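Incident log, structure service

09:12 report received: a user says their structure output differs between two submissions of the same chain.
09:20 pulled the input from the user's history:
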Amino acid sequence: LPGSPGIVVITEHDHSRKRALMSESLEWIAMGTGIVAAIMVSADLGRRITGFAFIVFAVSSTCWVMIGLSDDEAPLMYQNIVLTVINFIGIYRWLILKKESG
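09:34 re-ran on a clean worker, output below:
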């Protein structure tokens, strides 16, 4: 019964507030990691740093996919699914694939 000692009633408002807080947190993480990754790539600090930048970009795009899914924003979600694939190609190219000498 609501108001009884030891019983917690979670309302729809509580769920909405928690979801909004989670979404807002993910937005800040996605934005911050995207900025950091762009700085890493633009600084041209070498192959290894560029490869790690693609890992950071992948975190960003994955967050945006989750936000798009949570907020029912299909264009945002699909764009970032594609960007996540591109980021994994970048990870492979810059960190896994051996650079040809010559």
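09:41 both user submissions now match this output. Likely a transient worker issue. Closing.
09:42 reviewer note: DSSP finds three helices and no strands in the chain. The mean pLDDT is 90.
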